[in-house]
Amino acid sequence: MTLEEKISVLESLSKIAPVNASAEDEDNLIPYFLPLRSFSKLADEKVFLVTGGRGAGKSELFKVLTSEGGLNHLLSEADRKRHTKLKQPIFLVGYQSLGKESQRFPVRTVFDRYAKVRKEEQFTSIWGGLLCSVLLNHFSGDKEFEQIAETFLGMEQMEVLRNHSSTPEKWLPWMNCNLEKWEVFLDHCDSYFNKNEITVFITYDELDRVCSVYKDLFLYIRNLLNFWFAHNNRWVNLKAKIFLRSDLYNSKVLHFVDSSKMRAYHLELQWDSLSLYRLLVKRLANSGNPAAVEYLQSIPGLLADKRQGELGYFPNDSEEALKQFIEKLIGKYMGKNPKKGSSFSWVPNHIQDANGEVAPRPFLKCFVFAAEDQVAHRSEVESLEDDRLLYPPRLQGALTKVSNDRVNELIEDEYDWLEVLSEKLEGQSMLMERSEFLKFLTLDNWPEGERETLPGTTPEELLEALEKLGIFIETIDGRMNAPEIYLHGFGLKRRGGIKRPRG
After folding, report:
1. What is the mean pLDDT of the chain?
2. What are the pLDDT digits (tens) for 72-118?
């Protein structure tokens, strides 16, 4: 390869993941999307809960499902044959706080106001009202459907629910007083969908943004899960897909009554090393750069022979081919000999959180930042032997940026209470005695007005939340430790940590 060809592929590699966005651009989503084998579970009508950590791909999966023909993008030909009864699947947004559909739903301050009442039946009516509104809007103009709605809801209530879904004060009193009527309406909706061979899926995402007070989140989430758990077997053609952060689902505060029975209804998004590298290959292959495609096709068995429609180029499930790709990209080892570690295992090992999980977004960003840095050092590229593109120290240096990016992302998007903790911990060393670490979690460290956003009321509860998030872990000898993915972002120090390359 010429130097210019190498630079061209590196530039494509530097653009395979958005640096500042939490989810993908909708225009690029499908060719950049890698359907995992486990995603076929979403074709099962019984499965209504999808959980995963931040950056695990929940929002991307949500967007694919709610796009035109979304389910087909997740299923292999064999899967489609197994799920032939899913005729005309329709995916509708039941709640979203930031996307294009968000204006149809109440804003956070409205949900905050109703949370203060704390009546379980009211939360049922809120979710029920939003469900009715979604259906009324989608099937507007369908005479048979509207006749069903008029019979059980009445014309006046139909119009209110259809046109004022974001202002529950206009419809919630009626929903509270007419539980049986709207329940029967939804029963008849299910029958209507069955008659017309339609399966309607109501999708929910960004539930962590429903309200601003942490403990109030669980009032809404618990009721939504209970609502669909109760109706999952009652309705045949009206179903749900709820996307939820793992730490919220696993929280003791949730107290989901039937959570022990959820295995058959639950998909946990998990990524292994092979899936992550396949995602990397797929994104590079579909970057629109012929030089990148040629680079990948030079490795036997790495890419499928033909493009697969909208999904574009597709990586094969070959560990050997993936290892050859990384060896070609970086070299077999992160140094001159095996002492520095295998290149193939290095990134997953250093990007994993305290729970041993690796999210696609920070994994991809490690290569994005490394490629950006490498392009800025052209002379170094020229000196790399054969078709190698990345000097290992550039990848090592990228880890610091990924860690900073990860922590900043958490603070800005969802966990603003971590900013105070980050400021308090800066300059501290790991490992740290548990008793010493708990001092940093004393509630007095946070301004009084911010304490209601904390995921706990004691240092021990905050520590539990941090452990569930995979940010910190307690060692066997009772000390606290942080994985590399969070170490630098929190300004922590540890002997033997990764150093950035010079220059």
Report:
1. 88
2. 667 655 455 555 555 678 899 999 988 778 899 999 999 999 998 87
- Integer Rg of the chain from CA: 25
pTM above 0.85, yes or no: yes
User: What is the distance, to the nearest Å, from the Cα of residue 326 to the centroid of all Cα atoms in its chain?
Assistant: 26
Domain ranges of the chain: 3-16+272-409, 37-268, 415-487
Per-residue three-class SS string for 185-211: HHHHHHHHHHHCCCEEEEEECCHHHCC
Identify the CA nearest to 244 among candidates 272, 204, 201.
204
The separation between CA 106 and the C-alpha centre of its own chain, rounded to angstroms, equals: 22
Alpha-carbon distances, residue 112 vs 14, 118, 218, 227 (angstroms): 41, 10, 12, 20
Question: Which of the pair, 456 or 120, is modelled with greater confidence?
Answer: 456
In CATH terms, 415-487 corresponds, of 1.10.530, 3.10.450, 1.10.10, 3.40.50, to 1.10.10
| 3-state DSSP helix/strand/coil % of the chain, to nearest 5 | 55, 10, 35
pLDDT at 82: 57
